[in-house]
Amino acid sequence: RRVAVSLRHFGIPYRRRVLSTLTDMPDIEKSNPVGRVPVLVLPTGESVIDSAAILDALDQLVGPELALMPPSGPDRRRAFATLMLGVGTVERAMTANGERRRPADKQMPEKLDGLLRFVRRGLGELDRELGDGTWFVGDRMLQPDITAAVGLSFIRRVHPGLVGETEFPALSGLTARCEKMPAFQAAWIDIEA
User: Which of 36, 84, 134, 190 has the CA that lies 20 to 30 A from 21?
Assistant: First the structure.
């Protein structure tokens, strides 16, 4: 979803094809030989694989003034550190969702508990980093903000009850502000919890 939000934010038109790694692997492999999604197929036919590479390509396309990552220096390092914290938190939530959806006799409760503990720690650290600020880095929305907001929305949808509406107030406020933006609303993705 963070790629779709970024495309919308930049005003770059795109066509989205929803493919499942379970049922559509032959179609996915046409663009990505290792079968990972997302894949952005450029008008040239070139495939850009993985969200991080896609977001970097979009930043290169729009130039440094509009890019959603600072071009260099301490702000870039801080933005990347926060971005990776957000990505790591969401990856733990995705793994926990997969574990929770396994047949009951195959589930490992201690693994699920550990994953959800990491999710809560990650959210707590993001909340602490944002503090009283409007954005994580600088004076405008950047990729760490998009990723954190998309991540918290995802976590609340797939793990209802894990995070209360008023818990992590700074991060919850950022998410509420972002989810009201047209780029976020237009990039809403229905997912199975």
Answer: 84
pLDDT for position 109: 93
Q: How far apart are CA 79 and CA 97, in angstroms?
A: 27
Structure tokens at 49: 């694989």
13: left (phi over 0), alpha (psi -120 to 50) or beta: beta
What is the fold of 73-185? Answer: Glutathione S-transferase Yfyf (Class Pi); Chain A, domain 2 (1.20.1050)
pTM equals 0.91
State both tokens at 106: 């195959």
Q: Which residues of 62-95 are buried (b: 16+ CB within 10 A; e: fewer)?
A: eeeeebbbbeeeeeeebbbebbebbbebbebbbe
Q: What pLDDT is attached to residue 73?
A: 97
